[in-house]
Amino acid sequence: MRSSLKLAANSDAVSSEEQLRELEATYCSHGDTVHYTDKPKFFESCEGSFVFDAAETPFLDLQMWYSAVNFGYRNERLNTVAHRQLDRLPQVASQYLHREKVELATLIGQDAERKFGHKGRVHFNVGGSQAVEDSLKIVRNFTGGKSLMFAFEGGYHGRTLGATSITSSYRYRRRYGHFGERAQFIEFPYHFRGPKGMSKEEYGHYCVRKFARLFESEYNGVWDPKAGKSEYAAFYIEPIQGTGGYVIPPMNFFSELKKVLDEHGILLVVDEIQMGVYRTGKLWSIEHFDVAPDVLVFGKAITNGLNPLSGIWAKEALINPTIFPPGSTHSTFASNPMGTSVALETLRMVEETDFGTSVMQKGAHFLEGLKDLQSQHPIVGEVDGLGLALRMEICRPDGFTPDKATLDWMCDEGMKGDLITNGRKYGLVLDVGGYHKNVITLAPSLLISHEEIELAIELLGQLLSRAERR
């Protein structure tokens, strides 16, 4: 029988944008992270650091699909590999092997062994939250079924049931409750909003000592000194907080924290889903802090957003086949050939040049421009950055009180596509984060040019000026 599927609103031609909005309102779930504005923008094409609407207005993208497209839209080298894999071996069941999976796991595993001093193995999945779920299985399995975790205030690890339980935002689990895991949320050294009178390093030390106090007595609820056992299995961290607002801790923080964890047999799980793959100038952002994780979770940019792929690296003792045997977890599309082939090429690409130095130089250039804007605009409370993970905190004119409403307005204004420089109209794509949703979290393409950085500063300056005049 012939299929009757068709677009009833306009079956013979491409639907207009207004028709598409009507169809979206009727047939699409709104449960995903869209609709920050009443009418989300439709985009038609993309190239490098830009996305384009139907009128071909260029929108400079400073969030690059939540740091998934680190290497620019339509990256020719990575797209070529995807096309080649599509023509050669795009699909194969996970009960069989393909060379891209093995070579990618080997590359990640050998790199981790050199950097962290431990042999380990790599397990793949298709999304960041799913990889976090896999890590929770590994942690619970290794610790005898412990389901309590530590995590940070401001931390974000995904929106599957297990991942939301260790994500600090209650709104993500309010209607669903907990599923197995529970987390105790620990203060993160967010220096701009921390106690006054402390340097950044002193505040980091203060937060570690505050955490260590939990182990001083059994009556603090996490430690049995007689048995030398903790009720908590692991501490889940983002080295630089992502959704929390790109908060960068002091460099002494994680090494001090790791000593406390090691003293009490608690695993360190590092979530690199947003900050990994050279966002901060190193393959993994934890490398800046001279700490070796027990488990490392990655995703997003490892395929430049071309095909979903995520994964975990874990120490051999946690993940070897005798303790984590076949069937321990599974996804039909885990280690898919399209994703692993692009990820393999991504890692080869960044190793061919001094990519980290380039990112750090561009990040310093961008941060200098943000500091100039801060000096000119009282509503900019703080700017900071590591590599090309940058933040700009929007406040009231006192430079401190969070101003979410103004930032929301700025984001909408940037999407109008009417910012003008050198006689040409531009739009500006921004992302919002932070504890008070008043932080512009800047994650531009790592291949952004210095000229495009100057354009970004110019367009941000126009938005700030409009905000202050309104």
Any idea of the CATH topology of the largest domain?
Answer: Aspartate Aminotransferase, domain 2
| Average pLDDT taken over every residue | 95
**Structural class of the helices, strands and pairings?**
alpha/beta
Q: Which class of the largest domain in CATH terms?
A: Alpha Beta
The rounded Rg comes to 23 Å
Say how many strands there are.
Answer: 18
Q: Major sheet: order of its strands?
A: 4-12-11-10-9-5-6
* CATH homology-level superfamily of the largest domain: Type I PLP-dependent aspartate aminotransferase-like (Major domain)
Largest sheet: 7 strands, mixed
Number of helices: 13
Q: How does this model look, in words?
A:
With 470 residues, the protein is of the alpha/beta class. It has 2 domains: 135 residues, Aspartate Aminotransferase, domain 1; 272 residues, Aspartate Aminotransferase, domain 2 (3-Layer(aba) Sandwich). It has 13 helices and 18 strands. Helix 4 packs across helix 10.
